[in-house]
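Ticket closed. Logging final result for Tryptophan--tRNA ligase.
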Amino acid sequence: MTRVFSGVKPTGHLTLGNYLGAMRQWAAVDQYRADSLFCVVDLHALTVDHDPARVRRLSRQAATLLLAVGLDPELCTVFVQSHVDEHARLSYVLECVATDGEMRRMIQYKEKAARERERGGSVRLSLLTYPVLMAADILAYGADEVPVGDDQAQHVELTRDLAVRFNQRYGHTFVVPRATVPPVAARVMSLQDPGSKMGKSDDAGPGIVYLLDEPEVVRKKVMRAVTDSGREVVYDREERPGLANLLEILAACTGGNPEALSGVYESYGSLKKDTAEAVVELLRPVQERHRALCADPGYVEGVLRDGAERARAMARPTVDAAYRAIGLLPAVSDTDAGVVLNAAR
Ligand code: TYM
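Final structure:
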C-alpha cells in the first residue's frame, strides 16, 4: 500500500493556503487510499524566533484542526513530531550525507534568513538545517508520496537527493519519495500582495484568511483583496495575479476551473462576493468541528498519544537500519533482538 507522509508547522494560525494546498487533499483523498501519517511538525517551529507558550498553543490548535478538517484517526495516524524521537535521530545522520552548499541553495532558507537579517536578528543554525529534518520526517516512514503545496516541492526534491545518495553509499535503506501537489491552488497568494504566498507566519493579516476567521472577517478580507487595474475578468497569472488568485480560490472551493470561471463573471465585485461566500461555506463545517473538538481536549490528547505510539513503531526499524548502514555500532539490546542485522552488512 502506498505510504503518505505530510505535516504542518505550528508557526502561526493555519490558513486557507494550508487547507487548499495540502490539508484538504489529506482529508478528502489521501487518508482513504493510502497508509497515511499527518504530523504537527513542532520542531520546525523552533527554527525562527519563537515564544514557547505560543508554540505549545499553536501545536495543540494545529492538531485539533487536523481532526477538524476531517482526518480520521481510524484511517490515518495523526501525531506531533517531537513525541517521536526518530525524527531527530535520523536528522543527524542525514546531515552527514547533505552538504552545506545544498542547504544554502534552499529558497525558503534564503528568503527567511534575509528577512531575519533585515530585522537585525540572527539566523538560527536550525533554519539552515531545517530541510534535513524535513527529509528525516519523510524518510523515517518510507513514504512514497508527500502531498504538499508548491512551496515545499524544493524540499521534497532535496529529500529525494539525500535518499538516493544514502542508498548509493550505504546500501538500500530509504524509499525515494515524490511530492504530489494539487492541480488548483497549489500556491494560494496573499490577498493584499498577490506576488507573495499566503503564509501563516507573515505579518500581512488582512491578506491572509485563517481557517478560524469568523465569516464576517473572511468576507471583509476577500472583498478588500487587491485586484489589478483593468475591468474584464480574465485568468492570467502573470499579468493579473490578484484576479487569478481569486479565480483559483473560487475554483478550488467549488471544484471548478479558474479559466472557465473567468468567463462567468463580468465584474470584480461579483467575483469577490462569490469567492467570499465559497470560502465561508468551505470553512463552516471545519469551524463547527473545531468548536466541538475544543470542548473535548481529552479526545485530541488521546489521538495524539496513540498516533505517536503508532508512528514510533513505524519509524524505528528504518532509522535503526540507517544507523547500522552508515556504520554505527548496534546497541546490544537491538542485536539480541536481531533487528536488521543484515542492513549492517
Ligand atoms: P507549512 O506549515 O508552511 O505548510 C503546510 C502545508 O501547507 C502548504 N501551504 C500552501 N499551499 C498552497 N498555498 C499556500 N499559500 C500555502 N501555504 C502553505 C505547504 O506547502 C505545506 O504542504 N516544511 C513544511 C512542513 C513539513 C513537512 C515535513 C511537510 C515539515 N516536515 C514533511 C511535508 C513532509 C512547512 O513548512 O509547511
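The first strand starts at residue 3 and ends at 8. No further action required.
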